[in-house]
């Protein structure tokens, strides 16, 4: 990013005001300020983030996600009643493909304007924009294949590419994916510890409450029948069934959340800053003393 620095008598006031306005808008909308600030780059940058092109870009994304309801094979009908035997829409070949091409053209124009405003070095360091160009080419090739086969193919690769355009156009979605990438190792450790707790508790319960003299052929479907009876009782007489159902569900969820919180405290940092540590600190210390701690990778 380079500012235009000259003598005070030769400064282009309009360009300076435009630079200041663009930078303020970038700060307000949490956009990158690494773009070029010369006259032509600012024109391309304003066009790419202008109101008209932004509305067209968002509308094209919405249309791309609504097209599967009308593309073949489609199950969209005016009513869900199977007795009416309504036929789904069967648009002629080329209608949805033409709409897709227009949406693809709008996305390509915005990407090209952004590339011109930021410059080639920034494009090389931006994997999202490079991936968008690659997927645009794949999307266009798949669209040409569909038209050459007269829209008779069943598998369409471009349907899997459409979510990428939405993610690459949203800063919030990019940050969410970045957070997922950073926290997945800790999350897997937490799920492993939670599963170990549940499996251990299940094995202990099976050993403690096992009855070796019971008739397995007689009571093989007891648990399934009791569960179905509980659901039927909730539907027939809610005043009796809901009490049993919510009591069982409440205690089960309470124990499960307790195990989950203990797992979080065991996997998390032991700095004493968590508000849960005063309640679960004895259990966590016992687990750490028995070398049961799972460290986040």
UniProtKB/TrEMBL annotation:
It comes from Schistosoma mattheei. The chain crosses the membrane at residues 99-123, 129-149, 187-206. PANTHER family: TWO PORE CALCIUM CHANNEL PROTEIN 2, TWO PORE CHANNEL PROTEIN 2. It holds the Pfam family Ion_trans. One of its GO terms (biological process) is endocytosis involved in viral entry into host cell. InterPro entries: Ion_trans_dom (IPR005821), TPC2 (IPR028798). One of its GO terms (cellular component) is lysosomal membrane. It is found in: Membrane. Residues 90-232 form the Ion transport domain. Keywords: Membrane, Transmembrane, Transmembrane helix. Its main location: membrane. This is Ion transport domain-containing protein. It is a multi-pass membrane protein. GO terms for molecular function: intracellularly phosphatidylinositol-3,5-bisphosphate-gated monatomic cation channel activity; ligand-gated sodium channel activity; voltage-gated channel activity. The lineage of its organism: Eukaryota, Metazoa, Spiralia, Lophotrochozoa, Platyhelminthes. It comes from the Eukaryota.
């Amino acid at each position: 990013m380079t500012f235009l620095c000259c003598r005070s008598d030769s400064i282009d006031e309009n360009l300076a005001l435009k630079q200041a306005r663009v930078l303020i808008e970038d700060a307000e909308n949490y956009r990158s300020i690494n773009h070029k600030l010369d006259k032509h780059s600012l024109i391309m940058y304003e066009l790419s983030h202008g109101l008209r092109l932004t509305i067209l870009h968002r509308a094209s994304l919405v249309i791309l996600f609504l097209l599967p309801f009308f593309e073949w094979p489609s199950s969209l009908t005016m009513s869900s009643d199977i007795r009416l035997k309504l036929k789904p829409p069967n648009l002629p070949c080329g209608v949805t493909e033409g709409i897709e091409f227009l949406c693809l053209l709008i996305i390509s124009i915005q990407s090209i304007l952004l590339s011109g405003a930021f410059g080639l070095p920034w494009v090389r360091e931006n994997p999202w924009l490079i991936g968008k160009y690659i997927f645009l080419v794949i999307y266009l090739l798949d669209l040409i294949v569909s038209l050459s086969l007269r829209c008779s193919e069943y598998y369409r690769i471009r349907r899997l590419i459409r979510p990428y355009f939405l993610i690459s156009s949203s800063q919030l979605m990019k940050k969410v994916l970045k957070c997922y990438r950073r926290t997945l190792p800790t999350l897997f450790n937490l799920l492993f510890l939670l599963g170990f707790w549940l499996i251990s508790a299940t094995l202990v319960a099976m050993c403690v409450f096992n009855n070796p003299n019971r008739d397995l052929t007689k009571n093989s479907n007891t648990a399934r029948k009791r569960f179905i009876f509980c659901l039927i009782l909730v539907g027939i007489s809610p005043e009796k069934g809901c009490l049993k159902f919510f009591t069982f569900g409440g205690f089960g969820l309470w124990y499960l959340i307790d195990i989950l919180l203990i797992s979080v405290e065991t996997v998390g940092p032991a700095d004493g800053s968590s508000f849960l540590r005063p309640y679960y600190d004895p259990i966590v210390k016992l687990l750490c003393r028995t070398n049961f701690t799972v460290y986040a990778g």
